[in-house]
Specification:
The complex is a heterodimer of chains A (about 280) and B (about 300). By secondary structure, chain A is α/β, with parallel strands linked by helices. Chain A has one domain: Thiamin diphosphate (ThDP)-binding fold, Pyr/PP domains (Rossmann fold, 3-Layer(aba) Sandwich). Chain A is built from 11 helices and 9 strands. In chain A, helix 4 packs across helix 10. Chain A is globular, with a radius of gyration of 17 Å. Chain A starts with a helix and ends with a helix. Chain B has 2 domains: about 150 residues, Thiamin diphosphate (ThDP)-binding fold, Pyr/PP domains (Rossmann fold), CATH 3.40.50.970; about 120 residues, Rossmann fold. In chain B, helix 1 runs parallel beside helix 6, helix 3 packs parallel to helix 4 and helix 7 crosses helix 11. In chain B, about 55% of the residues are buried. In chain B, about 35% of the residues lie in helices and about 20% in strands. Chain B is of the alpha/beta class and about 300 residues long. The chains are: A alpha/beta (about 280), B alpha/beta (about 300). The interface between A and B is medium-sized, with 30 and 27 residues.
Chain lengths: ~280, ~300
């Protein structure tokens, strides 16, 4: 149960300027869009930052480049963070973040792959991404491409049985090019995962399904980079990286609070406090 | 119908190496011929229909055409959301083949009766839905669905359905076929129950009633032009389906008639809730619904 202890007493390094900058962009989309899954987006920042800054192979001017790595945000409700990374990397203009959830925007409350360059699959219903990732990883192997497939899931999301159907397949096919990532912020929609649908022992579950699994501090960039860059952790096995994170990370009054899972019409003074926390 | 379709699929996949077949652990004694001929294009993903549909989407997003195979409700309703979001919304070349459609697994009971599949699949975006009546329709439609490179559903019976068409009949996706022409009533059928409609036309002829019969092997898109033609050249129209009459073929035909401003005498022959949970052979279960000819005559 070591990972649960880490969850409760986690002491992550302080956020650096880039992590604060990316979070300010999240607040900007939340403010302009008048809504957003804020807690679920904030816990995800360092995971996606490490992927897009240091791990994924991609070409913003050629989003469908066949040899790219694939990143599926299976927890589609965390999409503001994905939009921020896509804007930061030049897939979309930064100003597009201001249209989040606006009429006819390309940026909705869940990501649409047919509208947004760089989004691999439209997600939002939970438990779909890992199966899609298994299919992509199988295809890469058949096509003899060395692309890797990363699937980022939420902790509440992995309550879904379809995740474990996909995990069985990944293990059976020894998909070493597939990396399952869990944003383990310990809080799902209505409350603590421990109370609603306990996932522990989580590492053991992934290992039992044939994955090489490790856990890391999901806000510690050197740890994240090391884990993500070293995947596959074992030959002939898919990898699972459990990232211990804090829901609402970076906004002290939102951290660990299920009320901040999703927020609409956040008052201007609260938005100001969020920006202040990220200075 | 099942064996002929898999043979047609095997031939197509041999010529098109981008085509893959996935099964959720069904098709024992049916799929072996494909698996042995094209092992690199075949996978049994286990009893995991949701994962199967998602994996198909992932393969299709990477340039493969994927065929899914299982029984009746399992590759359709069990993974409905994966088909809706991952396959249809992304408009991917994934074809679902279900065997045992309708009441083919009669004595196995309600869990194995596929009687809502056509209506539900047809409601999904980008989806073409085919319900062939005999092996010739099935073999002709499968490659057309694959060539379309979009989501598709092919509902098959089981084995041993007799041929109802002559060899060489022209069978085009989306185009219903007049099987025989009469003057009084049009019997519009989808699927193997077409055989019952043809026999009913003979029975009606003996009673002095002249019936036309059409095969609607494509459930969606519906051939509305042939529906209008049937209504304008007959006093009555009876739809015949091995599917729920709520939201099924009859409902779609009725909507097409209303949209065209046509109001012939109209009836629906198909599965009603009275059948739910009843055990018996396919033909006995259909017999309990009464005869097609009696339903037809009641309209005149």
């Amino acid at each position: 149960m070591a990972s649960m202890l880490k969850a409760v007493n986690q002491v992550s390094p302080p956020l650096d300027e880039r992590s604060k900058y990316l979070r300010r962009l999240i607040v900007r989309a939340l403010d302009k869009g008048e809504r957003g899954h804020i807690g679920s987006s904030m816990s995800l920042v360092e995971i996606l930052r490490a992927l897009y800054d240091d791990v994924l192979r991609f070409r913003p001017v050629e989003p469908k480049w066949p040899d790219r790595d694939r990143m599926i945000l299976s927890k589609g409700h965390g999409c503001i963070t994905l939009y921020v990374m896509l804007a930061d990397k030049g897939f979309i203009p930064v100003e597009t973040l201001d249209t989040f959830c606006h009429r006819d925007s390309i940026l909705g409350g869940h990501p649409e792959s047919n509208k947004i360059p760089g989004v691999e699959a439209s997600t939002g219903a939970l438990g779909h991404g890992l199966s899609i990732g298994v299919g992509m990883a199988l295809a890469a192997r058949m096509q003899k491409r060395d692309s890797r497939v990363f699937v980022v899931m939420g902790d509440g999301e992995i309550n879904e049985g379809s995740v474990w159907e996909a995990a069985l397949s990944a293990g059976k096919h020894k998909l070493s090019n597939l990396i399952a990532i869990v944003d383990y912020n310990k809080i799902q929609s209505a409350g603590p995962t421990r109370e609603i649908q306990d996932l522990e022992p989580l590492l053991d579950k992934w290992r039992a399904f044939g994955f090489a699994a490790i856990d890391v501090d999901g806000h510690d960039l050197p740890q994240l980079r090391a884990a993500l860059q070293s995947a596959p952790l074992e030959r002939d096995r898919p990898t699972a990286i459990i990232c211990h994170t804090v829901k609402g990370k970076g906004i002290p009054f939102a951290e660990h609070d299920p009320n901040w899972h999703h927020k609409a019409k956040v008052a201007p003074d609260v938005i100001a406090k969020m920006y202040a926390a990220l200075e | 119908m099942r064996t002929e379709t898999i043979d047609a699929l095997t031939a197509y996949a041999r010529a098109n190496p981008d085509v893959m077949l996935l099964t959720a652990d069904l098709g024992y004694s049916v799929l072996e011929r494909f698996a042995e001929a094209l092992p690199a294009q075949y996978a049994n993903v286990g009893v995991c229909e949701q994962a199967m549909a998602g994996i198909a989407a992932g393969l299709a997003l990477s340039g493969r055409r994927v065929v899914l195979y299982s029984i009746a409700n399992f590759p359709t309703l069990r993974c409905l959301e994966q088909l809706r979001n991952d396959v249809c919304h992304h408009d991917l070349p994934v074809t679902v083949i279900a065997v045992g459609g309708g009441l083919a697994y009669g004595a196995q009971g309600y869990t194995h009766h596929g009687v809502e599949d056509l209506g539900i699949m047809a409601m999904l975006p980008n989806m073409a839905v085919a319900c062939p009546a005999d092996p010739l329709e099935a073999m002709a439609l499968l490659p057309q669905l694959l060539e379309r490179r979009r989501p598709a559903y092919l509902r098959l019976g089981r084995a041993g359905e007799p041929a109802l068409h002559q060899a060489g009949a022209e069978i085009a996706l989306g185009r219903a076929i007049w099987m025989r022409r009469g003057a009084d009533i049009a019997l519009l059928a989808t699927g193997p129950i077409l055989g019952r409609a043809l026999r009913a036309a003979d029975a009606l002829a003996a009673r002095g009633v002249s019936a036309s019969v059409a095969s609607f092997h494509t459930f969606s898109p519906l051939d509305a032009a042939l529906v209008r033609e049937a209504a304008s050249s007959h006093r009555a129209v009876l739809t015949i389906e091995e599917h729920s009459v709520e939201g099924g073929f009859g409902s779609r035909v009725a909507e097409a008639l209303l949209m065209a401003g046509q109001a012939p005498r109209f009836g629906k022959f198909g599965v009603t809730d009275a059948l739910r949970g009843r055990i018996g052979s396919q033909s006995w279960l259909l017999d309990t619904l009464g005869s097609v000819e009696d339903h037809a005559q009641a309209l005149l």
